[in-house]
Design a protein that fits this description.
Blueprint (H helix, E strand, L loop, with lengths): L2 H13 L1 H15 L4 H4 L2 H8 L4 H8 L5 E6 L14 H11 L3 E7 L5 H4 L8 H16 L6 E5 L5 H10 L6 E3 L11 H12 L5 H11 L11 H11 L15 H19 L7 H4 L2 H14 L5 H11 L6 H8 L16 H7 L1 H11 L8 E2 L2 E2 L7 E5 L2 E5 L24 E6 L2 E6 L9 E9 L2 H9 L7 E5 L4 H4 L8 H9 L4 E5 L12 E6 L16 E5 L4 E4 L3 H6 L23 H6 L12
Parallel strand pairs: 1-2, 1-3, 3-4, 11-12, 12-13, 13-14
Antiparallel strand pairs: 5-6, 7-8, 9-10, 10-14, 11-15, 15-16
Helix pairs in contact: 6-13, 8-9, 9-16, 10-11, 10-22, 12-15, 15-19
């Protein structure tokens, strides 16, 4: 292991010692209890198993065989989650063949950010993560399960399921993916049509035709956004069947991989020699492995929020400085849209997550001495998966990549450092996805234009007011203000301006999509404007300087002036009613209690 990473692991372990120790103590207490069917009252047990056939009840109660919980994010509106419709039937059959039982413990909500972009529903998106975590907990709280199978893929769903499962960390658990949709229109062409639409060169019909060719079937969207970054990170954490992430939902191998996940979980539940409890597996080293995988692939910026929250759920304390330090040691090994032109299917064909993990292990950037659902060590996660009929096997990759324009070895990376950067300065702390922008745009200086909503910026673009060099400051978009919606709809107009030769960038306390890139974006500014953050001190025309090379973001005014400046608040006529409509009133308590983006935007503390 690289010394920097060993030092970082020790630093995280030390600062997490009180919270991690308390978590493991609670976990041990739960783990040492009798099984639910032996411990609960007879009426409780009868209720729990009333719908099962007599032979299944016998299996659980008298034979004391594993009873597995399924927590599913199935719905048939999300293309990525439609395949889960038939999974419970397959899972029950495989469990039965292996002397175990299965019950669907919970269905959790699963929203599509692609549908809600720019709409009021997007203000529920970030908070849906903790709602999913709570829903997972409700299902598992029946407390009659010996392990859990977690069915989810997309943006907030995997983090929510994992946070919920970690609060039941005494149980073994495994995630079951369903894979990406087949390749449609290439992402570069899709983006060009969006830009043409923003310019008024094509109409709604042409835009809808393009989008429908991109999003056209079952499976995750094929760009490397938050959903597919989820799958990369779960592989790196050892929580999948090794290599399962990016195989098409209707590939013949998919059922066998799902069946293997069930068999693995049963084996882990039955193993009395080695601990396979999820909360013990997800330790400081496993969290660092996930962080390294994110940095090495230029993954979604959303995970600088989500994986902080996931770590916290296991009693592990990390922040953006830890990502920043780790990025110095982790090379950028993948170029997948929006960081390149390839989609995830091409990424998989070139080697995919397994090739990246192999390279990180060989380069001392990932810990091998961890426990995974496949057993001790990460070796299988760095090997090529093959499925022949009902036989799964893992073999070594060739030394070279299948396509070094998409995936590279650690000796010849796309960059010596990871694809995300922490920016610090007199405005606060923010992050930038540097893997998606060329180095000649790492340093941007320009006058601020102030917007208090994304609608204000879009209106200014339509009115032709943005035909110049500027840095858009979009504020009051953080968790406390309105739930921190993604501002992905700002990407096409800003891209149009950048293509015209203007120097443009964005500074915001909101989120951009995991699919965003191209335009320099300092996002997740913390503290946010609604908490009195310095982003609300910036005035129209102030010169801003973003320097992603050294990791700084500053307003170029003298210190005394900056210190004396008051934080602006939204005027009454600018205030949007974010507290009502589209269900937002039900999330008032979450907005009230949410922590900062850098603290994971968690709502349960």
């Amino acid at each position: 292991m690289k010394n920097l990473i060993l030092e970082l692991a020790e630093k995280i372990k030390e600062k997490s010692r009180p919270t991690r120790s308390a978590y493991l103590k609670r976990l041990k207490t739960m783990k040492n209890r009798d099984r639910g069917s032996d411990r609960l009252g007879c009426a409780n047990v009868a209720h729990a198993f009333a719908s099962l056939s007599p032979d299944k009840r016998l299996t659980i109660v008298q034979e004391k065989r594993p009873n597995l919980a399924v927590v599913t994010a199935y719905n048939d509106m999300l293309s990525a989650h439609k395949p889960y419709e038939d999974y419970p039937e397959l899972i029950r059959a495989v469990a039965s063949e292996n002397g175990s039982t299965v019950q669907v413990a919970a269905g959790v909500p699963a929203m599509c950010d692609g549908v809600t972009q720019g709409e009021p529903g997007m203000e529920l998106s970030l908070f849906s993560r903790d709602t999913i975590a709570m829903s997972t907990s409700v299902g598992l709280s029946h407390d009659v399960f010996d392990g859990s199978l977690l069915l989810g893929i997309c943006d907030k769903i995997v983090p929510g399921l994992l946070i919920g499962a970690l609060h039941f960390g005494h149980l073994p658990a495994i995630f079951i993916p369903a894979g990406p949709m087949s390749t449609g229109i290439d992402n570069t062409s899709k983006s060009k049509v969006r830009e043409q639409y923003a310019l008024g060169k094509v109409g709604r019909k042409e835009l809808l035709d393009s989008e429908s060719k991109a999003y056209h079937g079952e499976g995750t969207c094929t760009f490397y956004g938050t959903a597919n970054s989820n799958q990369m990170l779960l592989e790196a954490m050892g929580l999948h069947v090794p290599g399962a992430a990016f195989i098409h939902p209707r590939d013949d191998a998919r059922n066998e991989l799902t069946s293997e996940a069930v068999r693995m979980l049963i084996k882990n539940v039955n193993d009395t020699k080695t601990s396979f409890a999820l909360g013990e597996m997800v330790d400081e080293k496993v969290i660092i492995n996930a962080m390294a995988a994110l940095l090495a692939t230029g993954g979604s910026t959303n995970h600088l929020i989500h994986w902080v929250a996931i770590a916290r759920a296991a009693g592990i304390m990390i922040d953006w400085t830890d990502f920043h330090e780790l990025a110095k040691a982790v090379p950028l090994l993948a170029s997948v849209y929006p960081n390149g032109v390839a989609d995830v299917n091409q990424f998989q064909e070139a080697g995919g997550p397994s090739f990246v993990i192999r390279e990180l292990l060989e380069n001392g950037c990932m810990f091998n001495d961890v426990l995974t659902v496949a057993g001790p060590g990460m070796e299988k996660y760095g090997q090529k998966l093959s499925v022949a009929g009902k036989t799964l096997s893992w073999t070594d990759f060739p030394k070279s990549s299948g396509d070094d324009t998409i995936v590279r070895t650690h000796e010849k990376p796309f960059s010596e450092t990871g694809g995300l950067k922490l920016l610090k300065g007199n405005v606060g702390r923010s992050v930038m996805k540097t893997s998606a922008i060329p180095e000649d745009k790492y340093i941007i200086e320009g006058p601020a234009m102030i917007f208090d909503s994304q609608e204000e910026l879009l209106e200014a673009f339509d009115e032709g007011k943005l035909e110049k060099d500027f840095i858009a400051v979009v504020r009051f978009q953080g968790p406390k203000a309105n739930g921190m919606p993604e501002l992905h709809k700002l990407t096409p107009p800003l891209s149009v301006l950048q293509n015209k030769g203007f120097k443009v960038a964005i500074v915001t306390d909101g989120r951009m999509s995991g699919a965003s890139g191209k335009v320099p974006a300092a996002i997740h500014m913390s503290p946010e404007a609604a908490l009195g953050g310095a982003i609300a001190k910036i005035r129209e025309g102030d010169m801003l300087r973003i320097n992603a090379t050294v990791g700084s973001l500053n307003v170029l005014v003298d210190e005394d002036t900056w210190f004396e400046r008051k934080v602006e608040t939204l005027s009454e006529n600018k205030k949007q009613n974010n507290s009502h409509g589209m269900g937002r009133e039900l999330f008032g308590a979450l907005r009230k209690n949410v922590l900062t983006a850098e603290e994971g935007a968690v709502t349960w503390i």
